[in-house]
Structures are given as C-alpha cells and as structure tokens.
Amino acid sequence: MLKLPSRLRLDNAPEEWARLEGALRAELAQVGNAAGRGITLDASGLNDFDSAALSLLPSALRLCGQDGWQLTLQQAPRELRELARVYALEHLFWPDVAAPAEMA
Q1: Prediction pTM value
Q2: Would you call 52 exposed, middle or buried from its count of C-beta atoms within 10 A (0-12, 13-18, 19+)?
Q3: Cβ contacts of 1 within 8 Å, gap of 6 or more
Q4: What value does the mean pLDDT take over residues 50-57?
C-alpha cells in the first residue's frame, strides 16, 4: 500500500507527484508479477492540502488505468472528499458515489 504525504499543496505538488509517480510505477511492476490488478493509496496521513491534491490524484488514476489497473483511495479525510465533491470528481475515487451524469 502506498501512502500520500501529510502535506500536499500547490508549492510541493510537483515534487510529490514525481515521488508518487515513481512509487506507482515500481508498485505496478512489482504487483504486475503477482495476482490482482489493483493498487491501494492510503490518504489517512493527509492533513494539510489544497486543490493541488485533486490535480495529483487523477494523474495517478490515469497512470494506473493505462494498463487496466484499478487505483483505490482509502481513508481519505472528510475535507478531501468534500473538495472532490465540489469539483465533481468524487465518483472517480469512490465508486459508491454516482457520477454527475447519472445523478440527473
């Protein structure tokens, strides 16, 4: 399981993306040799963030989805879920939430 950092803001998002991208690629290679097609990203330690977190997470989803991998975001802070809701992105991270087109 990979973990998001405790701080993810506009000023450190590029460095954190570089770190996360490398970790995801390594995890995909390692898990690719094992059973299963999913990777879990733990957000429980994320306590200082802004909308930059929501720019990084879809990039992680795209990277994993390129070869049919599923990325699961676990233990996200309530504030991150609310921010995702405001930007209409929560359905990307939490499948129990209907996509905007399905809610009409």
Answers
A1: 0.82
A2: middle
A3: 40, 41, 42, 74
A4: 91
